[in-house]
Design brief:
The complex is a heterodimer of chains A (about 60) and B (about 140). Chain A is mostly helical and about 60 residues long. In chain A, about 80% of the residues lie in helices and about 0% in strands. Chain A has a domain of about 35 residues.
Chain lengths: ~60, ~140
């Protein structure tokens, strides 16, 4: 079986699972875990969008 | 007097969980999330299991490459260290000769990174299971 993802969907899936693990492992209680996980997810996606626009602006 | 009693109370739990502080990280490395489950953190363990296993399997399905211990190129060694973190998933992939990487697929490189990151995330989960076992985290 071969799965083909585009760059953005791969980044979203990566961000989702990495954020879940970061949230669970970096905070003490459930509420903080959820908040931190959501924040990590937003930072990941924000970073992808910012990097995408930066590359578009820097293209020759 | 009160101080010695307090000190005993602080030391006692560390002695009782010493076996768990070895077993939980070891089991957590072998099966992602199991280090938390053995300490009755069921939901956390399940979420870790699903996240890490899904990331690894997606990487495999994207025709990602698995690194072997070869001691050659430094990037290969780093890739190997990341892959080893996935525990039983890595061993199974090696045993079944999966994860050979297919250059024909443009997304194969994403898959390789997915599998490395799955292993690295499991290292973090193992450290967390250890911290729970020694009482540093609830």
């Amino acid at each position: 079986m071969t799965i083909t993802l585009n760059h953005f969907s791969a980044a979203v899936i990566f961000a989702l699972f990495a954020s879940i693990v970061f949230g669970i492992t970096h905070r003490e209680n459930t509420r903080d875990m959820v908040t931190y996980g959501l924040r990590c997810f937003a930072y990941f996606l924000g970073g992808v969008i910012v990097a995408g626009w930066a590359m578009w602006l820097l293209k020759p | 007097m009160a101080n010695s009693t307090t000190e005993k109370a602080k030391v006692a739990p560390a002695e009782t969980i010493s076996i768990l502080s070895v077993v939980a990280p070891a089991l957590g490395w072998l099966i992602p999330g199991a280090g938390h489950m053995i300490q009755k953190r069921w939901i956390r363990g399940l979420l870790l299991f699903v996240s890490i296993v899904t990331l690894f399997l997606l990487g495999l399905a994207m025709q990602g490459r698995i690194y072997k211990a070869n001691g050659g190129d430094i990037l290969d060694i780093l890739g190997f260290v990341g892959n080893v973190g996935a525990g039983a998933l890595y061993l199974l992939t090696l045993a079944m000769d999966w994860g050979q990487g297919a250059i024909a697929y443009a997304t194969a490189d994403y898959g390789t990174k997915f599998m490395i990151v799955a292993g690295l995330l499991n290292f973090i989960a193992v450290a967390d299971a250890y911290h729970i076992a020694i009482g540093k985290k609830k």
